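A.,

Following up on our hallway conversation. Structure tokens first:
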């Protein structure tokens, strides 16, 4: 559907290469595998090898984007996140939109973003293309394929924090990321190491989740069918929401609906905008999530034994239903608000997982229970230090070239 409008071969691309993403092969992959293909296709490029974190984001916030047909990032999910922030923020700035107001109606941005996978997880590329192969992505970019994607905004106390396109994770995935940042020198294996440490710590966090169910969508997180190119659920949502303006009207309709409340102790709170498939989890955290249906799959993993949590995690890696467990709930939502039990002002410090490595002795003891400090959110691989957040689908379709 959107492809008819946007299936235009790009002629001039702005390329950002993160030389330090994943196995630090970004520049090599681009020079050897991608640049020759772009040259053959007569695509001109301006290539920027990033010199520091947020280089791409800051450059995009200033540069005149009208001369480009698209932006390409060579790196992982963190690089894609930088690029999407630069692009969305510049578009809102030009349109005079206040991003701190969660109710602001964002303006869609016209440029498409392509990913050449060269990161550690490459979840966004994997979930959209089905494989993280630089040549496949380059060919999609060359022929002008496109894929709309849902974007969610994350706010804290009416302050804009970040946009998310793949996974927002509190508890387990927040803690894994926090710990893994200290071990970047390990390369992609840092996630295995920190994952193991975090699993042993078995921390759960108390709080309240308020969510607004997505009632107007055709799909359900427990569906057998998967979102692919031309997906009828996304097409239906696209037509229903009329891609931009009418979506906002529907949001107001939805706001009149009932908010639901879930209180408890959680090992993980995950919000998936897409399946979040990657090589370690080929079906993803929410296998039936849609790329562009205007919803978020909210997955709540309540406090359970370490053995049961392991069963849930193992199901991420195989075809067994990870939601078919008594301590796991999943809802398809338009919006949610999380409030931790312990206010952030009282929060002593972001916890050090290392100190809690043997937390099992405490958490299994009836007198102990949950951590009295908060976790942090993992937002597409970037840390959000606030625990209390308001997350909503922001009706914003940013198009990927590699779809
Ligand atoms: N030149 C640079 N020096 C240091 N950090 C950089 C540089 N360029 C980009 N970054 C930052 O590096 C972080 C990680 O990059 P990237 O996502 O490409 O790799 P990754 O973390 O290994 O992969 P993934 O996100 O898929 O797990 C990003 O948050 C980005 O802001």
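Then the amino acids I'd put at each of the 403 positions:
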């Amino acid at each position: 559907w959107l492809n008819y409008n946007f299936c235009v071969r790009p002629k001039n691309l702005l390329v950002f290469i993160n030389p330090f993403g994943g196995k630090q092969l970004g520049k090599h992959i681009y020079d050897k595998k991608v640049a020759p293909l772009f040259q053959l296709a007569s695509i001109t490029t301006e290539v920027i090898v990033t010199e520091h974190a947020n280089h791409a984001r800051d450059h995009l916030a200033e540069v005149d984007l009208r001369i480009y047909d698209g932006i390409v990032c060579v790196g992982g999910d963190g690089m894609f996140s930088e690029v999407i922030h630069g692009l969305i923020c510049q578009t809102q700035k030009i349109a005079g939109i206040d991003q701190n107001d969660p109710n602001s109606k964002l303006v869609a941005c016209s440029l498409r973003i392509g990913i050449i996978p060269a990161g550690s997880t490459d979840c966004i590329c994997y979930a959209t293309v089905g494989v993280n192969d630089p040549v496949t992505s380059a060919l999609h970019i060359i022929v002008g394929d496109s894929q709309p994607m849902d974007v969610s905004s994350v706010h804290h106390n009416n302050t804009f924090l970040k946009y998310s396109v793949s996974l927002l994770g509190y508890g387990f995935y927040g803690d894994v990321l926090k710990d893994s940042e200290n071990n970047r020198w390990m390369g992609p294996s840092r996630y295995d190491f920190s994952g193991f440490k975090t699993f042993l710590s078995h921390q759960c966090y108390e709080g309240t989740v308020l969510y607004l169910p997505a009632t107007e969508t055709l799909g359900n997180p427990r569906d057998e069918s998967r979102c692919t190119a031309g997906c009828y659920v996304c097409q239906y949502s696209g037509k229903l929401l009329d891609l931009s303006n009418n979506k906002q009207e529907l949001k107001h309709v939805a706001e009149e609906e009932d908010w639901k409340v879930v209180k408890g102790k959680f090992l993980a709170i995950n919000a998936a905008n897409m399946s979040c498939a990657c090589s370690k989890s080929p079906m993803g955290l929410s296998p039936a999530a849609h790329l562009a249906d205007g919803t978020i799959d909210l997955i709540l993993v309540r406090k359970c034994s370490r053995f049961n949590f392991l069963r849930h995690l193992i199901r991420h890696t195989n075809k067994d239903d990870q939601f078919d467990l008594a301590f796991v709930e999943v809802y398809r939502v338009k919006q949610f608000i999380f409030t931790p039990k312990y206010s952030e002002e009282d929060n002593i410090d972001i916890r050090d997982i290392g100190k809690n490595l043997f937390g099992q002795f405490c958490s299994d003891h009836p007198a102990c229970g949950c951590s009295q400090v908060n976790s942090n959110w993992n937002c597409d691989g970037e840390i959000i230090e606030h625990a209390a957040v308001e997350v909503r689908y922001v009706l914003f379709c940013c198009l990927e070239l590699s779809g």
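Residues 12-145 form a domain with the Rossmann fold fold (CATH 3.40.50.10330). Curious whether your intuition agrees with the design.

B.
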